[in-house]
Amino acid sequence: MTESKQLVVLGGAGDMGRFAARTAIDFDFISEVIIADLDLTAAEKCAALLGKKARALQLDVTDAARLASVLEPADFVINCVGPFFRFAVPILRAAIAAKTDYSDICDDPGPTKEMLALSGEAKAAGVCALIGMGASPGLTNLLAAKAIGELDETEEAYTGWDLEGATAKEDPNDIKGAGGDDPGPTAAYIHAAHIMCGKHQARRNGKDVMEKPLRKIKLDFPGIGRGRGWTIGHPEPLTLAHTHPHLKESANIVLTSFRNMVMSKAMSAMADAGVITIEQMAKGLIGDTSEIPKAKETELSGADAEEQNENLAPGRLPQIFALAIGQRGGRPARVGTYITSSPPGEMGGSTGVPCAIGLKIIANPAARKPGVYPPEGLLNPDAFFDALAPLCRPVREGHADLVNVASS
Length: 408
Hints:
- By secondary structure, this protein is α/β, with parallel strands linked by helices.
- It has 2 domains: about 5-135 and about 345-390, 3-Layer(aba) Sandwich (Rossmann fold), CATH 3.40.50; about 140-340, Dihydrodipicolinate Reductase, domain 2, CATH 3.30.360.
- About 40% of the residues lie in helices and about 25% in strands.
- The chain has helices spanning about 15-25, 40-50, 65-70, 85-100, 110-115, 120-125, 140-150, 185-195, 235-245, 260-270, 280-285, 295-310, 345-360, 375-380, 380-390, 400, and strands at about 5-10, 30-35, 55-60, 75-80, 100-105, 130, 155-160, 200-205, 205-210, 215-220, 225-230, 250-255, 320-330, 330-340, 370-375, 405.
- Strands 3-2-1-4-5-6-15 form a 7-stranded parallel β-sheet, with helices on both faces.
- The longest helix is centred in the C-terminal third of the chain and has 17 residues, at about 345-360.
- The model is unreliable at about 170-180 (pLDDT under 50).
C-alpha cells in the first residue's frame, strides 16, 4: 500500500460524504481526494478545509459520460449519493466499467440485491466492491457477524438502530452550499419513507420472503432485557441470508416511540394507496404534515396507552446493535453485540467514517478480493473494529474495548 492512489468521493460535500472524505484524506496511500458533488460551492468549501490533497469537482452523476471520465483515472470511489434506490446500481456499473474499486453506504434492499448480482462482472473486471458499509447497514452487519461467530449454530439474527439517533449533524465549519430555495426533504428522509412503504425482503422460516415493513418484534437482549422495535426495509436481512444461508429468521428493526410508529404506519398506508407521494411522506417524517391528512387523535391516544401498558421502552435496546439466537455447547443461547463509542458527527460520522475505513481495508492486497460483497462477506469484524476504534469518541483501544459482547 505504498503506491499513492486517487480517490473520488461522490456526494463528497453531503451529510455523509464529507465525513468519509475527512477520514480518507489522512490515509497515507491516498495522494488526492476529489470532492465530487452536484453543489460546486459546497465541494469547494469542503476541499478548502481538507487541504492540499483535496480538489473540488462539480458532477451530476446522471451524466453517464461525465461520470465515466471522472472514474476512469481514479483508483477508488466512495459513493455517498442517495437515495440509493435511484443511484446505486448505475454508479456501481460505471465503477466496474472504469475498473475502479468501489465502496458505498447503500441502505436500500432493492439495489443491494441488484448489486450483488453484478459480482461476476466485477470479478471479470478485477474490481473489488464493498456495498452497504455505513452505520446500518455496515456496523450492524459486522456486529451481527461478531455475534454469529460466538455461537455454534445460529437460527435467528436481528440488527437494529434508533430512529431518533439517525440524523445528520450540522457541520460546524459550514461546508454546505450558499443556500437559496428550500430543496425539500433530503435523500435520507426520502430513503426513510421508501423503506417504510411497499414490500421488502426478510428471512422467515428459512425462506426469503417479501413482506410489508413495520411489523413489531420483541427482543430479549442479554444484559439489558426486553425491548421492541419495528421491521424496516433494509439490506441486512438480505445480505445476512446471502452470507449465512442457514438462518431461519432475520430482520432489521427500527427503534422509536409508539406514537411515531402510528404516524409512520398511517403515512405508509397513504403512500401505498397513492394518497400521498414518497416526497410528501418524507416531509411528514421531518415534521411538516401540512400535505398529509391528520391521524385520528384516538389512534394516537391508543398508541400512548399501549406504550405504557407494554412497558417496553426503545431506550432499553442499544442505539446500534445485533442479536444472534441459536445454540452453543448443545444448549440454547443468545449473543447481543453493540458498540460502546462511535465517530463524532452523529449519523454523518457513524456512516461516513466506517465507509472510509472499509475502503482502507480493501485497499490492502491481503484483504482485497474482486467481486461485490456486503461487509460481513468481505471484512473481518475484529480487524474492522480495531481500525475504527481510534476514530471514535471517546477513543477506544481496539475491538475488545469498542464492541460489547453479552451472552445468555
